[in-house]
Amino acid sequence: MVDRVLPKEQVSAFLDYLRRRYRLWAPVAQGGGFVFAEIDHPESIRLDYPTTMLPPKAAFLPPNEILLSIDMESLESAPPPAEDKPIALLGVHPCDLHGLMRLDMAMREEPSDASYVSARRGALIIGLACVHRCRPEAFCDSMETFRGAAGADLYLTPIEDGFWVEVRDGAEESLADAADCFRPPSDRQKREKDDINRQIDLEFSGRRLSLETLADDLEKTYTSSYWAKLADRCFSCGACTAVCPTCVCFDVRDDLAGGCKTADRCRSWDSCLLKDFAAVAGNENFRPKRHQRLRHRMMRQGSYLAKRFNLPAFCVGCGRCPAMCLGKISPLEAFEFSQKGRTVHV
Amino acid sequence: MFDFIPEIANVTSVRPVTATETLYHIRLPNRPLGHLPGQFVQVSLPGIGEAPISIASAPGRDGFDLCVRHVGNVTEALRRLRAGDCVGIRGPFGRGVPLDEVMGRNVLIIAGGLGLAPLRSLIQYILYFRAKFKKAAVLVGARSPDALLFSKEYKAWRQDGDIDVRVTVDVAKAGWKGDVGVITDLIPHVPLPPADTVSIVCGPPVMYHYVLRTLSRLHQPQDHIFLSLERRMKCGTGKCGHCQINGLYVCREGPVFRYDRIVHVPEAVS
Amino acid sequence: MKKLRVAFYSFTSCEGCQLTLLECEDRLLDVLGAVEIVRFREASSYEGGEFDADADIAFVEGSISTVHDESAARTVRSRSKKLVAFGACADIGGVNAIKNREGVETARERVYGPAAAWIHSSAARPLSAVVPVDAALHGCPVDKDELIRFIFAAAVGAKLPDPAAPVCFECKLRQTACVFQKGEVCLGPITRGGCKAICPAFGSGCDGCRGLAPDANLLLMRRLLKERGLDGSDLARRVDLFNAAALTEDQRRELIGHA
User: Are residues A163 and A228 in the same domain?
Assistant: First the structure.
């Protein structure tokens, strides 16, 4: 890890560098909120954003993508040509960095997904510290995902002079041509950065879960009537999975293009909350009830995938799903329910 | 690494099995499929999509069989295939029957409805390598005599393979001389010692509970029972989530599971 | 392969769904390359009988609200291999069915005045109330992309899967700020998607034109709207805009509080 400072007056030069070398994605304002978008005009970038509608996973796993184009006559198929430049994701908050790491685990678990690997190849991930809680629904403190440079090539902490930049070992190379933008940090800047980190620890000190036992605790609730009660507040609309940084479920279907001469085999985000998600041909549905699907999602986030990838939880507590859910269902309440009576309040 | 690119395979023969099922023989142009009994492939038609289909023939160099029930979008469209046509194939996927745990023992195969399709792969394997297995029995259940799969092959299984094949149907019709009733009724009549017998079960979801209850009453150890589970396998690599049962991806960790490993997994067979 | 013979017909409707196909201007040649259109009054100068073609697929727009509609629907059914309910009126009764709730006689008198006795009309019903329907394209109007995909899929012998996700799902993918949370009444959570959540994207709540989503949580919707001060007749008015003929009595009770 190397520490640098990106002075305010160098920010625009750095953005120019990023745009030359990468397809730059960053948060911008849209419709009263913020979204990650590919950047045409650097002045539209809003690094003061609290959180985005969709997580940055869309950069590597788009909501809709063409996996293959198949010639209807010959049946020969080929993936679309790879993009000429890799993606740089700028301004990724810690919860989303943890989300991207989980996305990587799921999509890169052998056999890794070719389309994802191709989109992810050579990508530069630039994290951005959260100094304040983005919204009341966020529970990144409980999930212990509010902090850290994990998963980022560069990690920015806003300081008075610009940004404190932690450069991951091995990431210096991708910055070689932008070296002029960075300065060695001064002692004063270091003190300021340490102060900010202490402030962050204070801001996110509301830990309410015992993560070590969460997966097992949650599985013990499997037969509880709690789930049916919780499902009274669930539309099973799938909004929660759509905005989730770690939900990766997808559907694959064929779309015909150009008068049926080619078929595009397309991947789109799917949701385990939707009625037909676990249905098979012949009218069999393995999770026909709303509460079964809701429970499945919560278990997937709190237990199944956590165990699979040896993590305390798959959910990163970003707070998007409880904020979007009209029934105000939060994974935190389900997780807390499973630890009733043993919850740690710090 | 995997992409979704299918291999273009040749359909070398098409044989109707019942009114709703068809048997396709398929060859890959450049390689044998290299599957184990119980594995599946993704079959695709361009513009229509992919469907997971279990492999219905023993591993071999000369192509493979797929027994397709025409109930979905893709499988309905497969009706139009004729010998000489092409289909897309990906796979084989998943874990099949672990042959080393079956060989050297008695084998009890319990197949309900379309469940006989993947198990035919194992039956053929037993016929090829008969000496490697002790006694073998196949129990077949179907809705009606018309719905029986591969009924013309039972004679050869009995005679060439010395396999005890027993058949029952839910509803008989004129001319039916066999058993009528549920498949679990057949199990106690098979004279195989549970401790030295491996059972392999595949059928409609409702069947597992009753078969497992019967096997348990006969004191068959749970690690001697293998279940092939149906789910909505889409990607085949444990990513898309559709086939997930709790922490398990059926397309990767299954579709064939040893019972003791899923007995406590809710949703699997309960 | 022989081209699929496709016919378009309309009953009680504004014919806007047919217009939707005509508005797919840059893709019309592709459509004509894939299928043969044998009847399409709105787009042709053909002056023969209207229901006299044999078709592989008939797209039928409009609800059934007259004796003529009903007998023509039977004719179309008998001459078509597949019948598609084309748009909200044919699919769920749609706007036309508002009158069912106030009473057909009252409606007739209000619309036709003194001439009411001369006009026959019945309650507006979806196409499926009269003849078996093979598939439906939802919405008022139907979604262009979905329509084109449906036609292309049919041309190669496939059936487009019915969208299962409620409007909310696509609304999130589109990153539209939630209009329900902004205080609008939006039926998105209980309405079948596939429309790319176009109404919320333009700032207005979903009116439910694509019918109920599978497994819609109607009790929850009622509770949330009640918190907004919407109850009984307000709610009924909103729901009945498109779904007056679509909900079962039980569903109405769950959603509105009375049948």
Answer: no
